[in-house]
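A note on notation is needed here, since sequence and fold are reported together in a single record. The reader may check this reading against the record printed directly beneath this paragraph.
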Amino acid sequence: MFETGSLIVYGNSGICRVEGVSMKQQLGGGGQAMYYTLTPLFGSGTVYTPVETKVFMRPVITGEEARDLIRRMPEIEPGCCAGTDQRTLAEHYRGLLHTYQCESLVKIIKAVHLKARQAAARGKKLGKTDQQFMKRAEELLYEELSLALDIPKDQVKDHILKTLEPAAQ
């Protein structure tokens, strides 16, 4: 069980702060259950969810885990999809997103960057599905790294590039 004040990754809502834990009446008259009150850090509104929900929840990664992830980024293989149709591609990216792990987000970003370079070399543009999933993967990854490393979200990409720059030389 997460404590009040904890920062967690909550399914597709992204990073949330646990504002409280309390007993609430379950929907449909199923009695009472323990509920988290969550506030998305990079969104609006309030989320009420049972403590025993099936929605994925985990603590935000630590600063050390974030630094380790950045160091390992060059070795992380892109999450390329063998299928060419948009439906297969979307299912592939959705499967990676729904692991809710930072490494999977890196795989999506690397795969789409690779496809973008290949498309540009052929004089083509990147598809809408690729663009949408890369945007979402970057949002989720940069939000979490921002909190873990205590830097503004809009500086995360530059921080990653500067950290990896010496390794590329």
